[in-house]
């Protein structure tokens, strides 16, 4: 039981703040675009805070080896889920609020993730990792798929 708490607590604290989860639920329920846009901007604020503004400076480190985080410790699979969960709302809201094709939205998710990674490296706020790009892009794709349950 303690092991489960150790594994799940970081996910709840870092990746999906309860307010953001609540915002997604409201977005499922309501059909008003103004509320969805407000929730999308709120999500962007939370995303930028978690990935950039809450960070403290650290030495620059870049890791371009795909899945290298998994090779360090198997428990780091949770790291992937945190990153995916963080980007699910991006794919969800972009698919819901725009008329772009799924592959365009997924590419936008990749570009947003790349922008965050570059910002973290340039300002020494995190590690530039290929794993982040992979997980974040997958999260965006999952978010796009989730809109199939909302759209008619």
Automatic annotation (TrEMBL):
Residue intervals passing through the bilayer: 12-30, 37-57, 77-98, 105-127
Ranges in coiled-coil conformation: none
Top-level taxon of origin: Bacteria
UniProt keyword Transmembrane present: yes
Domain VanZ-like: 40-150
Pfam families xrefs: VanZ
Keyword annotations of the record: Membrane, Transmembrane, Transmembrane helix
Claim: Membrane is one of the keywords in the record: yes
PANTHER family in UniProt: MEMBRANE PROTEIN, MEMBRANE PROTEIN-RELATED
Protein name: VanZ-like domain-containing protein
């Amino acid at each position: 039981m303690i092991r489960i708490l150790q594994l799940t607590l970081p996910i709840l604290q870092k990746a999906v703040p309860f307010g953001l989860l609540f915002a997604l639920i409201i977005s499922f329920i309501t059909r008003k675009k103004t509320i969805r846009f407000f929730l999308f901007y709120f999500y962007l604020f939370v995303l930028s805070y978690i990935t950039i503004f809450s960070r403290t400076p650290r030495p620059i480190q870049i890791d371009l080896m795909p899945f290298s985080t998994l090779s360090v410790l198997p428990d780091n699979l949770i790291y992937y889920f945190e990153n995916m969960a963080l980007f699910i709302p991006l794919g969800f809201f972009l698919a819901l609020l725009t008329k772009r094709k799924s592959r365009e939205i997924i590419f936008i998710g990749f570009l947003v993730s790349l922008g965050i990674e570059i910002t973290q490296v340039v300002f020494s706020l995190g590690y530039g990792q290929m794993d982040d790009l992979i997980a974040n892009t997958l999260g965006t794709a999952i978010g796009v798929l989730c809109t199939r349950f909302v759209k008619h």
